[in-house]
């Protein structure tokens, strides 16, 4: 297994790039998708969130109202610390378990981790950062996810800066152009991945994120 960390600010186009890399042969581990699985009704993560914020974060269908959680966590630093304390250890454990299962294979595994730069990424074969002007990311988030400009701006401000992220990149994917341009960038990224040294199957997998939580 060769592991590639994929990160970028919210709205940078990470998920889109992850899909393009899967089309080119990668196996995807998507931290956000794992979070959604781990907070289904009946799970310890779901119970911890309801214990913290009450029924107001439960939607009518009984599932977690992610928007209601976000409204608390992304406007109050203490609530964000509480949210991260509930979610991050659980997602870290699950991610490590799945990576250990994949370590036996010769897959190219792309780890889509929004906060990779903030949490640390020792031991990966390489780190790809999807880069875009934060103003462009904000406009795309408002257009695609129904966030207000204020919500989107708050979330961008809580993450590492563009410069901090770029400083950690082994390869930068530029998403300032069209989706066609992005597909060419994905080709370039895939060509770069094929030049990397591949660890032998069965090598040790260390937990990501041991540097601690910043936000
Ligand atoms: P992230 O996973 O980094 O938050 P997404 O991949 O979900 O970002 O992209 C955010 C939104 O912007 C999506 O609706 C996506 O389709 C759109 N998008 C991504 N890249 C481009 C682009 N180059 N041109 C136009 N829209 C884009």
What does this structure look like?
This protein has ten helices and five strands; from the N terminus they run βαβααααβαβαααβα. The chain is globular, with a radius of gyration of 17 Å. It has helices spanning 14-23, 31-38, 44-53, 66-73, 77-102, 116-119, 134-145, 149-158, 162-167, 179-193; strands at residues 2-8, 27-30, 108-112, 126-131, 171-174. The protein has a five-stranded parallel β-sheet with strand order 2-3-1-4-5, with helices on both faces. 51% of the residues lie in helices and 12% in strands. The chain has a domain at 1-26 and 107-203: Rossmann fold (3-Layer(aba) Sandwich), CATH 3.40.50. The model is unreliable at 211-215 (pLDDT under 50). The protein has 215 residues and is of the alpha/beta class. Adenosine-5'-diphosphate (ADP) binds at residues 8, 10-16, 140, 144, 175, 177-179, 182. Residues 8, 10-16, 140, 144, 175, 177-179, 182 line the site of adenosine-5'-diphosphate.
